[in-house]
Amino acid sequence: MLLPPPPPGRQVYRKVRDRASFAFALVSAAVVLATDNGRVRSARVAFGGLSYKPWRSVQAEAALAGAALTRTSFDAAGAAALKNARGYGYNDFKIPLARRTLRATLTDAAGIT
Predict the structure, then answer these.
(1) Minimal CA–CA distance to 28: which of 3, 57, 62, 5?
(2) Which CATH architecture best describes the domain 10-110?
(3) Half-sphere exposure of 38 toward its Cβ, with a 13 Å CA cutoff?
């Protein structure tokens, strides 16, 4: 089997887990981010730990297209990705945690300190 080449950009994966757990992520984010002159040229975003399987967020990718490499843009991507998310009481904390995890992952991928 021949796999297609990966999309251009820097690839970053971040896993957030409970201190006592080593196997399962509470939330994870995988990002491939290509930048040009301080703007997002292309982005791929996927989350884990939020559903029964990992999922790609085309909403976050659309929010990032052409956006400046800023915290505001990264927060807007998180808001777009999780716009329709709802918790079930015991896991409500995962929604804001996923937004913060995506922001941190994008910041790392963009090389922003």
Answers:
(1) 57
(2) 2-Layer Sandwich (3.30)
(3) 3
